[in-house]
Amino acid sequence: MFHFSRQRLSISALAIRIAGTYSFMAMVSMTLCGCSESQPVGPERSPVSGTITFAGKPVPFGTVSFIPPEGSGLPVSGAEIQDGQYDCSKNGGVPVGKHRVEINGWSTPPTDQGAADLTAPTQAPLIPKKYNTQSELTLSVDSSNPLVKDFDLK
Is 62 exposed, middle or buried (0-12, 13-18, 19+ CB in 10 A)? Predict the structure, then answer.
């Protein structure tokens, strides 16, 4: 059988015990979290923007994707194309490094009909596969300045 002794703590002893507990918790928090300025999370990035033309005309609607080498652990970045312009600065831009570039374009804006409407006509791609699924376009991004990169597709 266990016997518990009851101890009466004075208010000052209780205050010291509470202060000691909070001091300990503060030291543990500083050790785990660090006391330095917060560092950016994720890879270093740089904004990329420019114009995209096909056969001498601005691409009306589309997407541009910057795909890092497989196994690099870097995320794919991209932006929408509207009237030949794109701006990939969201979330800091494109991760620094070399990327394969895929460009998709359409003459009319893509519809948001979902998979339920199978009778809707599909758009023919404006841009040939050699600039998207079979693209050999590349772009090297560094962190020195925002990059303006135009693509004149033939």
Answer: buried
